[in-house]
Write the structure tokens for this entry.
Amino acid sequence: MSTSNRSPVHDRQGRAVRPHAAMRPLWLCRVCAAPWPCQPARLLLLMEYRRDRVGLSVYLAGQLFEATGDLVRLNPNPAPTPQELFERFMAWTAEARGVVGGTEPGHRARVRDSAREVADRDAELLRRLAE
């Protein structure tokens, strides 16, 4: 599992695209200063893991875990909500695969609600561990 997050393509001037990597512990992009994973990082990750979407989810779950610890330590009040962190790190991978947004009414909301419950439970465990 590679974490270089470098593009195999070059920009219009022929230069290699700079890696959109996370600047820890702030979890901002080193190139564009957007919350990581920024849009370019997401695209590069999708290209890198195009044949291993499970690997992408596992990698981002690990990054979510690390970011949660860093961000809660840096900003305890108000700490980022579990839903915000889930949306930022994980939800877009399901949307990119076409999993979220099924044809039945309310499918996306049900998926998001179950993810929120899991994220809330995990956040409570993290708070207990930090005490």
Summary: The longest strand covers residues 22-23. The helical segments are 39-48, 53-74, 82-97, 107-130.
